[in-house]
């Protein structure tokens, strides 16, 4: 196994292990590994393949906890944001946008730690956050933190929060796969290479589910907030 496949396997295992526990942050954790071995468009292609596999599994298991009303509200804005993000991905690499997202996430986490009172998002802000979530999901596969901010404002129940995140990312995956294929970012070679990584991916799902069962709601919320903070720094520092 060459260096690229080792880093791909390690990134996918680590990312989807965390994703299974928290409901988000898979791409944020995996990207630093993948970007050491491949260009950003290829990394987004690989992540999309494994999201395509994991999403139906998680959505099926967590369907009864998903906030479907919120999911419907995010569908339209996310779709248009995703289209714009993938177009930018195909024709440029605006690193400054990644850093701006990192700064925003860090500021949000610091505000959450400073104040016990949640920031309430108005309806138009939710549309904007949905668009931006779709945009960064298409561009960097890193829209999860923005969606978590929306979902966190809609519910304090960590089980509904986690399940709805699976639903949102499932929606994004459904939109993203055909657009990536149309733009030529998703290739048959990536699908072939993914077969070798599949055992590590399956192991990540199994171990992640076992760890999740040992966590209480308070600990899971702290982990989510910590991952948001770390993901902000990863986006800010990664070139």
TrEMBL record:
It is found in: Cell membrane. It is a multi-pass membrane protein. It comes from the Bacteria. This is Probable membrane transporter protein. Belongs to the 4-toluene sulfonate uptake permease (TSUP) (TC 2.A.102) family. Its main location: membrane. The chain crosses the membrane at residues 74-93, 99-116, 128-151, 163-182, 194-213, 219-237. It holds the Pfam family TauE. PANTHER family: MEMBRANE TRANSPORTER PROTEIN, TRANSMEMBRANE PROTEIN YFCA. Keywords: Cell membrane, Membrane, Transmembrane, Transmembrane helix, Transport. It comes from Flavobacterium tiangeerense. The keyword Transport applies. InterPro entries: TM_pro_TauE-like, TSUP.
